Structure to design on (171 residues):
């Protein structure tokens, strides 16, 4: 899954680096989610031999599941959000080596760990780390990072959204 951008420029999902080059104003808006975490887009992803800003992030977790977890913590910010349903198997066949399901652990010293994961559905769940983050953020009056502690599928490239199914988060 990939949440639909509020104003998609064209019919392609682009990584941050692509937005920076083609749509600078959209890039600046996209960077807002990294406020206070400016080092994150520059992180190197060894499994794909590129940086964080060179990939599109997908989630094996259905948006409705994210909403249910957030709602249980008192946060309803996802109601009405839409996400593209992206078939990871098709991406892997079309562009071998560009999609990795990655389990990563951030480290205080910047030496993050990345692990290749092979079973997509095994990681289509919310961890206790994520639940704890959601609870803490809501308690502190902050907007939670939706994918904190959630396994990511990272795609090195662009994704055409023409004809992709879309799901909508319901209350």
């Amino acid at each position: 899954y990939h949440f639909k951008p509020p104003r998609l420029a064209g019919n392609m999902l682009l990584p941050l680096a692509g937005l920076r080059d083609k749509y600078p104003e959209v890039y600046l808006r996209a960077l807002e989610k990294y406020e206070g975490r400016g080092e994150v887009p520059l992180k190197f992803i060894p499994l794909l031999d590129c940086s964080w800003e060179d990939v599109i992030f997908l989630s094996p977790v259905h948006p409705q599941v994210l909403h249910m977890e957030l709602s249980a913590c008192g946060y309803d910010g996802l109601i009405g959000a839409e996400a593209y349903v992206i078939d990871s198997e098709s991406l892997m066949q079309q562009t071998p080596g560009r999609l990795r399901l990655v389990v990563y652990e951030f480290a205080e010293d910047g030496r993050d760990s990345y692990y290749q994961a092979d079973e997509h559905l095994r990681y289509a769940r919310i961890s206790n780390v994520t639940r704890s983050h959601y609870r803490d953020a809501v308690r502190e009056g902050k907007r939670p990072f939706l994918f904190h502690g959630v396994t990511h599928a990272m795609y090195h490239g662009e994704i055409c959204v023409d004809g992709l199914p879309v799901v909508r988060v319901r209350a």
